[in-house]
Structure formats: C-alpha cells, structure tokens
Amino acid sequence: MTDEKFEEYLNERYRDQIDYYTSKAGWNKRMYNWFQWSVIIVSSVLPVLVVSFKEDLKFVAAGLSVVLAIGTSALKAFKFQENWLNYRQLAETLKQEKHFYDAEIGAYATAADKRALFVDRVESLISRENAIWVNVHQQKEEAAGNAAKR
Predict the structure, then answer these.
(1) Which pTM value belongs to this model?
(2) How far apart are CA 111 and CA 101, in angstroms?
(3) Pick from 75, 73, 76, 114: nearest CA to 97
(4) I want to staple 29 with a disulfide (CB 3.0 to 4.6 A). Which of 68, 69, 84, 96 is the partner?
(5) How do residues 62-97 score in pLDDT, each as one tens digit?
(6) Which residues contact 15 (CB under 8 A, 6 or more apart)?
(7) Between 80-103 and 114-149, two packed helices, what is the crossing angle to 10 degrees?
C-alpha cells in the first residue's frame, strides 16, 4: 500500500468512522440519559399525585402514566444504552489500533505490511460492530414479535 493510498484511507475511512461512532455514542448517551431521567422523575411524581386524591389531578396522573409507559418502552425498544456503549467501545478500539500501529506493537511488530494489517484490522472491527448492531436489534424485533403473539 502506497503512502498516498494509506493517507487517503486514514482521512476518508478511518477518521470518518471514528467521528461517526463518537457522534453516535454521544447521541445515544444523551437519549439514554434523557429518557432514564424522565422515567425516574415521572415515577417519583406519579405516586404523590395519585395519593393526593384531588379530582382535578386525575388527568395529570393519567397523562404522566402514559408518559412513563412510553419512556420505559422507548428505553427498551431503542436500545440507547446498548448502542451508546457499543459505539463508544468501537471508537476507542479504533483509536487504540492506531496507537498499536504507530508504536509497532502487538501484531504490527512482526508484520510484513503494517499498513495492510492496519486496514484489515480496522475493517474487521467495523464489520464486527455492524454484526453486533444487527444482533442487538434483531433481538429487539424478536422480543416484540413474541410479545405480540401472547
């Protein structure tokens, strides 16, 4: 692999993937935290409204019950926490791979073509993450299908 081709790979694929997974990890973390805190707050407020037995609060309590059900279901259905952790782990693993390459340690210490090995390992990591994502989301769909059958 030429210097030019390797630099092109680093700039157009490798760094782009790190940026993508870092961005996705951040978004999923924000969504997870938002939904999680919403569920915690609504769960805490709802019993107070219910025991107050004020007639005018029954619609607020009913509305909050719906919000609670939606928030809890969204956490389970959209897998924000799993996605956040998977994306973060892959971004960090990709960064670590470059450090190994630069330091010529691990498999890079004895590789005949360090650049080709780097590209192969990075693409394997990305491919593995794609398989993990599909597996996590297939489980979600299977669980939803099983629930619908009941």
Answers:
(1) 0.81
(2) 10
(3) 114
(4) 84
(5) 899 999 999 999 999 999 999 999 999 999 999 999
(6) none
(7) 170
